[in-house]
Amino acid sequence: MAYELEAVKTSQEIFYYLLEHHELREEEEALLYKAYTEQEEIQNLVKSQGEIAKSRIERYDNVIYLIPEEENNFLGFSKAQLKAALCKSGGTDRDYYLSQFVVLTLLVEFFDGQGSSSKTREYIRVGELQNCISGRLREGAQSMDEDEEEKSGIAFSDMLEAFEALRSDERGSRAKTTKEGFLHHILMFLQKQGLIEYVEQDEMIKTTKKLDNFMDWNLLNQNNYQRVLCVLGVTEDE
Question: Residue 172 pLDDT > 80, yes or no?
Answer without folding.
Answer: no
